[in-house]
Write a structure and sequence with these properties.
Layout: H1 2-26, E1 31-34, H2 36-42, H3 44-73, H4 77-123, E2 128-131, E3 140-141, H5 143-150
Parallel strand pairs: 1-2, 1-3
Helix pairs in contact: 2-5, 3-4, 4-5
């Protein structure tokens, strides 16, 4: 009985090994790699968003400077404290809105880039796409093709 278990275990291990080997060898998967950082840096959408964010940050800084001048010009201590509180709350709200808007737009761009990579990979017959930072060796680099579509 013990011999039967050992033989059966050996046969099962052999069958499992052959099955896994066939799945790997018979299913010639095509693997692609993408340099995400290059794609993002070359994206016109990302550049426009960065420029928009810089402009809005400058507007906010100008508003803050004007608010500070108004506070500094107030001689009444109670009114000065009320202005400080008011502008502090407004600044926090404006900054939060700016951050939320930026995050939402960035998420939309990320989804667009991801979908573009998926579409390009499918069109070229790839079954797996990895970031170039993950793949140490192998895979066809499709970064340039993706960058052409993204631009």
């Amino acid at each position: 009985m013990n011999k039967k278990v050992v033989v059966l275990t050996g046969v099962l291990a052999l069958v499992l090994g052959v099955a896994v080997g066939c799945m790997i060898g018979c299913n010639k998967s095509k693997v692609a790699v993408v340099n995400i950082q290059r794609v993002v840096n070359s994206s016109e959408q990302v550049q426009l968003l960065k420029n928009e964010q810089i402009a809005k940050s400058q507007e906010l800084a100008k508003w803050l400077e004007e608010s500070q001048k108004e506070v500094d010009g107030e001689k009444n201590k109670e009114k000065k404290e009320a202005l400080l509180k008011k502008y502090g709350e407004e600044f926090a709200q404006k900054r939060e809105e700016l951050a939320k808007e930026y995050a939402q737009k960035l998420q939309n761009i990320d989804e667009n880039i991801t979908q573009t990579i998926i579409d390009e990979a499918k069109d070229k017959g790839y079954s797996l796409v990895l970031t170039k930072t993950v793949a140490i060796y192998g895979g066809d680099d499709i970064t340039e093709e993706v960058m052409k579509v993204i631009e």
